[in-house]
Amino acid sequence: MTLGQAQDRSDAQLAREIACGAGSLLLELRKTFSGAEAGREGDAQANALIVERLLAERPEDALLSEERLCDGARLKASRVWIVDPLDGTREYAEGRDDWAVHIGLAIDGVPTVGAVSIPARNECWSSDAPYPPHPIARPLRMVVSRTRPAKEALMVAEALGAEMLPMGSAGAKAMAVVRGDAEIYLHTGGQYEWDNCAPAAVALAAGLHVSRVDGAPLVYNCEDPSLPDLLICRHELAEPILHLLAKET
């Protein structure tokens, strides 16, 4: 494929293609490696595939990856690919299915394009696909960390009478809301831009509410890539959830 042909492909198509390719690679690696070794090999090899593709096909864009040293040059760029080659390394190493590949593109700090592959479930979600709205379930369902649910999430779940669904990867949790398996994803335990850029782009494209827990927008390509909290939920639920969170601060 020539560079011209690659650039004819939309950013969303490229993101989806790379996310699916990295996901297929990770599934193959897990046939050979297990445990901590699977996690190390998965992080390294998926990162190599993603970085090579993006540098070749979008050479004018900047790139921030969890598994790649950042020299700060991206801070002057308008278009920055923000990727997590293996989100949920622990779940991947344990043989679970709640891990993901994130390929996101922030333009002027806004999560504009994204693809989230959940390879073990044969799913690849992207910001250029329509997602029909799902009816809100009762009782409500909230995805939370399977190892360390935040106290704010516990408080909101109790206040709203929501059932908590423990899950691994941030991408897997966000896509559970997109898919309609849950209505709320609330996180306050600390994340980085690569943990939520692609999931945020897909969730926004699906018509969901996406923000910080104080209601502020998520902003990307910052000097400090820490982005410690987020709320992804149905729009009808955003106001009551943000009100509950504001009362706690």
How does the SSE layout of this entry go?
Layout: H1 3-8, H2 11-32, H3 35-57, E1 62-65, E2 79-87, H4 89-93, E3 100-107, E4 110-118, E5 123-126, E6 141-145, H5 151-160, E7 163-167, H6 170-179, E8 184-187, H7 193-205, E9 209-211, E10 230-233, H8 235-248
Parallel strand pairs: 1-2, 6-7, 6-8
Antiparallel strand pairs: 2-3, 3-4, 4-5, 8-10, 9-10
Helix pairs in contact: 2-3, 5-8, 6-7
Q: What would the keywords be for this entry?
A:
249 residues; alpha/beta; Fructose-1,6-Bisphosphatase, Chain A, domain 1; D-Maltodextrin-Binding Protein, domain 2; 2 domains; 5-stranded mixed sheet; globular; disordered N terminus
Count of distinct structural domains: 2
CATH fold description of the largest domain: Fructose-1,6-Bisphosphatase, Chain A, domain 1
What is the H/E string? HHHEEHEEEEHEHEHEEH
SS element count, helices: 8
Strand content: 15-25%
Taking all Cα atoms into account, the compactness measure Rg is 17 Å
User: Low-confidence parts lasting 5 or more residues at pLDDT below 50?
Assistant: 1-6
Q: Biggest sheet: strands side by side, in what order?
A: 1-2-3-4-5
CATH homolog superfamily of the largest domain? Fructose-1,6-Bisphosphatase, subunit A, domain 1
